[in-house]
Design a protein that fits this description.
Layout lengths: L15 H13 L1 E9 L3 H6 L13 H6 L3 E5 L8 E6 L2 E11 L3 E10 L6 E12 L5 E11 L4 H29 L1
Length: 182
């Protein structure tokens, strides 16, 4: 994981408070990973990678009730350092691309969150990891990193994980439909 920005290398326009918050999120971050198998090559899957905000069909009711409604994206997401603005009803996320290993790994950090999620979730980043299987199929793993202020943790951790897995399955299913229809 790329270290959080500090005072001397914070992106222009970010306050010291935002930088401190980013460092706290990085220290308390939790990762949720969901894997699914695609019946095609890593090259075809790579061409179908997308963000949640790029899925054309409306999210299912349970995700619409639990998560902000995505609208779309602005800017390029093809090179390390690119910043993508992900738009939602009620706010946005700014994702910075941190690592691209074509055909294998695509990683990003959330560098700005102007969006209320789940009563206090702070997103810190995520990634897609592709692994070719002996059958020629591809396993895709989606990871979301976040921190939560919800207490008690013994109650909220499994709820947050369940919602995150539902979100991942929706994303991966949309990617699978796109790739297998091509």
């Amino acid at each position: 994981m790329k270290p959080a920005a500090t005072g001397t290398n914070a992106p222009a326009g970010r306050s010291a408070d935002a930088t401190s918050a980013a460092m706290v999120v990085a220290r308390q971050s939790r990762s949720i990973v969901t894997r699914i198998k695609f019946a095609t090559s890593p090259e075809r899957v790579w061409g179908g990678l997308m963000f949640y905000e790029q899925i054309e069909e409306r999210p299912p009711l349970h995700l619409r009730l639990l998560l902000p409604l995505p609208i779309g994206t602005e800017n390029s997401k093809s090179r390390v350092g690119d910043e993508v603005k992900c738009l939602y009803e009620g706010g946005h996320l700014l994702k910075r691309i941190t690592r691209i290993d074509v055909g294998h790994h695509y990683g990003f950090d959330v560098v700005e969150q102007s969006l209320a999620i789940g009563g206090g979730l702070a997103l810190s980043g995520g990634c897609y990891t592709l692994r070719e299987l002996p059958s020629g199929n591809t396993e895709v793993a989606v990871t979301t990193r976040y921190a939560s202020v919800r207490r008690p943790r013994w109650l909220w951790k499994p709820i947050e994980a369940a919602v995150c897995h539902m979100f991942h399955r929706h994303l991966l299913s949309a990617m699978r439909r796109k790739v297998e229809a091509a």
